[in-house]
Amino acid sequence: MEYLAIKVVHIISSVLLVGTGFGTAFYLFFANRSRSVEAIAVVSRLVVRADWWFTTPAVIIQPLSGAYMLHLAGYPLNAFWIVASAALYALAGICWLPVVWYQIRMHRMAVEAHAQGTALPDLYWRYARRWELLGYPAFIAMVVVFALMVMKPM
User: Fold this and answer.
1) 81-95: per-residue pLDDT in tens?
2) CA–CA distance, 4 with 146 (Å, rounded to integer)
């Protein structure tokens, strides 16, 4: 029963991690395409909030619950699917950290531009492009992690 309880926590946190990440990226991506400073200011505020409320706890829970399940199940830590999953999770994290930094700065720029009634600065759009480019490998890495977790190829 203990293993199943941890597995439920692990699955729910993975859904929050990937779902929140994909959902917030979707909305900010399209808010950016609208070029509406007001929409971008609102959406970017919610994206930053969602990362703090949902993504960050899930990022912490995932490796802890995963490691505990590996311990309980007795899987060898050098199994291909475990090593590959850990490496891909690290890759996603390496992409995610600058994404969070960009999101916070993009939000501040959007709020300031909206308050002043001005267009977003060129720096915002450079950050938005980098934010987007970092999101692709992170998302793909997490999709592959899901596949590895389900199939557990040896």
Assistant:
1) 999 999 999 999 999
2) 18
